[in-house]
Amino acid sequence: MLAKRIACIFPVHNEAAVLAKQLKKFVVDLKQAGLPVGEIILVENGSQDNSWRIIESLRRKDGRIQTIRLPHASYGEAVRVGLEHARGERIFVLNVDFFDVAFMQQALPLLEVTDIVIASKTLGASDDQRSFGRRWVTYFFNVLLRLMLNYPGTDTHGIKGFKKTRLLHYSLMRCRTHHELFDTELIIRMTRWGAKLVELPITVREIRPSRYSVIKRSVATAIDLVSALWSKLLIPGFPQRLVVADDYGISASVNQAILKVASRQLVDIVSVMPNMVSKSAVTQLQAIPKVSFSAHLNVVEGKPLSNIDDVSTLVNSRGEFYSSSQFFWRLLGGKIQVAQIERELGTQIQRLREHGLKIKHLDSHQHWHLQPPIGNVVVRLARRFKVRQIRSFDSTRNYLKSKPLRYVGFLVIHLLLRLRFGPNGFSTETVDEIIVHPGTDYDQMAIDSLPRHR
């Protein structure tokens, strides 16, 4: 049904003065327009007034309203979590003081053929009735964004509609900004990766003054601008082949997050940690259709599946794998036996097969399969178990580019191990992919904040 396909998100921060009145008006406008909406997601973030109490009261009166509460004020995080929660195939991000059901009606047919529709305050046909100062700040700020970040539109904070796609999900997970520029970075990433953008004119009226001080908003925006500039330099091309969710088995919360995105068909492959996943967790995963499986090979966390005596150079006195840094120094110093790595990783692949998983892809925890001499071990195992896909170096490099310290560390380790052992020999056997980690960072916040359906 159409009602189940439309979701509306409202970030809420210190909106007590207008919240109840505006949400009531929104519901009335929807009814008058005959526009069915299945979800109204209110994301309260760091309010110091009665906004949360009002939100809970509204939820009890309207079964479509879902409530999420974040511990601190952040427009970007509120939008991100709302978009992660939304089940609708068409999603609108609105403001408590500024929404337009007529815009939603215009945008819905456009979202059949495009990915993003924005209500721009700066189009020639728009009517921006805000104060002179706010209009000029908006104008010059958007000029700055176009010059510095190649922003493809004319407005950044207009109300907007999205078509739910894997590209939207992936872009959400890769955004680095947290505050005022979050939706700007999101749209830049999506359009750079092939999303289509359309803008519509809008009429804007102020019903209350800004809730943020000029200084606080300027500082948050400056931080976001630095993050956005860094992201601009490092945004990789969007691989069109595989989306792989890593770390299934590492914890219950990560498992639930991965099951969630897999059930919504947002990933192609789930990468399972052989030495940490339980049989019951595997059974849950197998119940989801249209998902393939990867062995997330691991020699730096947890305990081995092999007998301790057979992999004695890989474990400490407690029978646990050495940490990643300890493993590196021991490998570099010749204290790790490569044959034992091969024995353990072979055992891990075999264990997943015994669980009933057909392994079509290999990668590794903390990207160790890309480091010499482990890469050559993984190639031999791929041939032995008839696995045709191995995560490429470029996949990991593109993933780590948004994490500068980890990226530099990865490259330094790779250089030192290559000098010690020589290069890996599997350049023709790797596949480019998109790496995601549901259940961590903002994804974990989304899982922990799941609305209770009553």
Mean of residue pLDDT?
Answer: 85
Largest sheet: 7 strands, mixed
Q: Termini, distance in Å?
A: 20 Å
- What's the number of structural domains? 2
State the CATH superfamily name of the largest domain: Spore Coat Polysaccharide Biosynthesis Protein SpsA, Chain A
CATH architecture of the largest domain: Alpha-Beta Complex
CATH class category label of the largest domain: Alpha Beta
Percent of residues in β-strands: 15-25%
> Please, what is the oligomeric state?
single chain
- CA gyration radius, whole angstroms: 24 Å
Structure characterization notes:
The chain is α/β, with parallel strands linked by helices. The chain has two domains: 236 residues, Spore Coat Polysaccharide Biosynthesis Protein SpsA, Chain A, CATH 3.90.550.10; 202 residues, Alpha-Beta Barrel (TIM Barrel), CATH 3.20.20. It is built from 16 helices and 16 strands. Strands 3-2-1-4-7-5-8 form a seven-stranded mixed beta sheet, sandwiched between helices. Strands 15-14-13-12-11-10-16 form a seven-stranded parallel beta sheet. Strand 2, helix 2 and strand 3 form a beta-alpha-beta unit. Helix 9 packs across helix 16 and helix 12 runs parallel beside helix 13. The longest helix has 21 residues. The two termini are 20 Å apart. The relative contact order is 0.10. The C terminus is likely disordered.
Which terms summarize this structure?
2 domains; 454 residues; 43% helix; single chain; seven-stranded mixed beta sheet; disordered C terminus; elongated; seven-stranded parallel beta sheet; alpha/beta
